[in-house]
Amino acid sequence: MEYSWKELIAVDRYIVHAKGILSELDRKVLTLLYQPLIGAQAYSLYMTLWSELEQARLWSEETTHHSLMAIMQCSLPTIYAERLKLEGIGLLNTYMKRTNEDDERVFIYELLLPLTPEQFFNDGVLNVFLYDRVGKTKFQKLKKFFSDRAIDRTSFTPITRSFHDVFSSIQPEKMIHKLSDEAKQEVMLQDGQQYIGKERAIYKMQDDIFDFDAFYAGLSHHLVPRRAITEKVKDAIKKLSFLYGIGPLDMQKIVMGVIDPAEQIDIEALRKAAQEWYQFERGEALPRLYDRVQPLAERTMAHAEPKNEEEYLMKQLETVSPRQLLMDFSGGVEPALADLQLIEDIMFKQKLPPGVMNVLIYYVMLRTDMKLPKKYVEKIASSWARKKVRTVKQAMELAKKEAREYETFMKEKEQKGSKKPIRTELLPDWLQTDYSQFERKQVKSEEELEQKRRELEERLKKPKS
């Protein structure tokens, strides 16, 4: 999602509210488990907001975002982008109201505590993402760090006393209903006050991430009654669909395979069945980065209809994974393992979102006669990562700029009297700029490349099965 001044400006005020008191264990969970997922800047934003609270207090003083920019030494668009990450992963709730004075805005940033280590490692989505980010060895070390040996209590006898064994009951004449109204007010919490407690971070996935209508349409009511699809099961279905790329038809088969005779669905059995389906379909233990699609928060065309060919391509690149894009390029043939490994390494090391990786693939393959030269791809990826390219639109605009600079360089080189023949690249429509002031030299391979470009765009326009 691109930043807009309508979303946030420096003079907008905010108040920090906490849903509990951060413990030392919570800090370690945030640092070691959440930070690899959200990045250092989002982690810094969370801790900076938390530091504005006084010790054991739930509310901060009101201040402006200009102050936050000064403390974090970063721009407002960066703060906004990192805020969205915290919201998406469930660590932050944001509320906004407009005041009557000059229509000013006030935000409440409500901080939630991270999941416990047990909740995190059993989540089914966050733990898989962490494994993908840090690798097997580090993941196992983290599990060991956040666990300890369990005591075998089978040889012990419980001797703990119960409450009524230790305490006697209160005499009837001293019960609260006997107290005066003034005394009752002393006992009860006053209006507008709340007790200090704890509320853990729970990230949410909207229903539209999975086509439940198609899922229900092909699901037999006799085999799987609708009452078996509880809210917990629906939530698990959304997470597993997002994580493993499972469509409604395949999810029907998975659900029908795990429902028990009592017509109930065990969440853990559902997770295992989804993992087995993924391993059978893809032959891999865990989903890879090249199977991801552009996050909804970073899609420019998520809620817009394309008005031209460029926007249509933009929407396609936002909704397809790098693996699927390569398959579309090759007419449905599974991509070479070397190409997939190259993409995986780049996405992991350079932290490029899937949509940006798609633009890079599209750009490079059309400039190098349908190849993915490792050094060339890594050079561009490194440049885009330094420039913090996060959306498909940003990547396409940057590619346009680089294409213009390349054309200018090649034209100047030609005008200086270079004896070597200059090969002028034919670029896809969204890279085209106004080169009418030039006299472009045509080469024999241009017609062939133009035909390939048209074929690729036609393949992208075909609906995915």
Automatic annotation (TrEMBL):
Query: Ranges for the Replicative helicase loading/DNA remodeling protein DnaB N-terminal winged helix domain?
Result: 15-220
**Gene3D superfamilies xrefs:** DnaD domain-like
Q: Which InterPro entries match?
A: DnaB/C_C, DnaD-like_sf, WHD_DnaB
User: Do the record's keywords include Coiled coil?
Assistant: yes
Among Pfam families, the record links this protein to: DnaB_2, WHD_DnaB
Instruction: Please give the coiled-coil regions recorded for this protein.
Output: 396-462
Domain DnaB/C C-terminal residues, every copy: 340-397
* UniProt key word Ion transport: no
**Family per similarity comment:** Belongs to the DnaB/DnaD family.
Indicate what this protein is called per its UniProt record. Replication initiation and membrane attachment protein
Q: What are the record keywords, sorted?
A: Coiled coil
